[in-house]
Design a protein that fits this description.
With about 325 residues, this protein is α/β, with parallel strands linked by helices. The protein is built from 12 helices and 10 strands. The longest helix has 17 residues. About 10% of the residues have low confidence.
Length: about 325
């Protein structure tokens, strides 16, 4: 069965406001080694690096363009330090630079940082699928995996603030994390997430991931994707007969629908969010808890929409609580 999500005109208006033979190397003198190191350091991205230089960096091949929203009307700023994303607050320029350098350093080292989830034939049949894929933040071999889904009101994918940072921090804790670049639109986004999960399961040995008790993370529209896949399962959206996630982690969305089939759910929202009403999410989790579903909810005083990792805000520390929530499900 394949479910089609339909959004009314009014609901869409709300969303548009919200939202993986060796040759001998001759010895290198310390002076030469130092020179090479200095050259690499000079080439590292900084807050002054033009965004277009990252997009066009040959080390990324064709997928450099997917690091930032494909539809450039949803971001502004010429440099990494100036990056601003529509609907998002508290963008951390240092984290933006760290992520861009993470991608560059791993790509230069020969690591695979991006995976296509659709075949060339599928992309030829539907050109919109050209703008999809998974950025991989590798953790410990054999560790569990998470898929992080950025928001953007189903109009664009705000990955640099709303999924890349989360995936990077998860990898630092040893987990294998993927950030999904999907086709905007509620239905297509869920289909792409289902396909991404199927891809990870199909390539689990190559990716060195444990597929048990995986988690889905998301902010704003991405939180809805995580919730819908959690409730209905990947098969409903064409992803094959696969298990539901062991945990869903949601940020700043006002989703009120729930089901006895919902996985354990963690949610956090700012109480000054003019887009996502924190009380709606609190009510949802209370209703889930009454059904015997493990839940955890946090709301933050004076905080608005799109706070990401929450560094330097009232929400700082939510991320570690969410990881602990997921780990509790692993032990259940």
């Amino acid at each position: 069965m394949k479910t089609t999500l339909r959004i009314t005109g009014a609901a869409l208006a709300v969303l548009l406001l919200s939202g993986c033979g060796q040759a001998q190397t001759p010895p290198v003198s310390s002076s030469v080694s130092s020179t090479v190191e200095e050259t690499v350091m000079q080439q590292a991205y900084t807050t002054e690096t033009p965004i277009q230089d990252v997009i066009n960096d040959p080390v990324f091949g064709d997928h450099g363009r997917l690091i930032f929203p494909v539809n450039d009307q949803y971001y502004s700023g010429d440099t990494l330090g100036e990056l601003d994303l529509t609907f998002y607050s508290h963008i951390d320029p240092d984290k933006t630079v760290e992520i861009a350098n993470y991608f560059r350093e791993h790509a230069q080292a020969g690591d695979t940082i991006f995976y296509d989830i659709y075949t060339d034939e599928e992309k030829a049949a539907d050109p919109a699928k050209e703008n999809t894929g998974l950025f991989f933040f590798k953790g410990e071999p054999g560790a569990r995996f998470a898929v992080c889904n950025a928001g953007g009101a189903f109009a664009f994918v705000g990955a640099m603030h709303d999924s890349f940072p989360h995936a990077l921090e998860l990898s630092k804790q040893g987990y294998n994390a993927f950030a999904l670049i999907y086709r905007p639109g509620a239905q297509t986004a869920c289909e792409d997430l289902a396909r991404a999960i199927q891809f990870i399961f199909d390539h689990a040995e190559e990716l060195e991931v444990d597929t048990s008790c995986y988690s889905l993370w998301g902010g704003s529209a991405g939180a809805r994707m995580a919730a819908w896949l959690g409730t209905y399962g990947p098969e409903t959206f064409g992803g094959g007969d696969l298990p539901r996630p062991g945990a869903v982690i949601m940020q700043y969305t006002g989703l009120n629908e729930y089901s006895p089939m919902d996985p354990p759910t963690f949610a956090c929202v700012g109480d000054a969010d003019g887009i996502a009403n924190w009380q709606v999410m609190q009510a949802r989790l209370e209703a889930q808890a009454e059904l015997g579903i493990d839940t955890e909810f946090h709301h933050y005083s004076g905080l608005g929409h799109g706070f990401g990792l929450g560094t330097g805000t009232e929400a700082e520390g939510w991320f570690d609580l969410a990881v602990q929530f997921w780990e509790r499900q692993m032990e259940a």
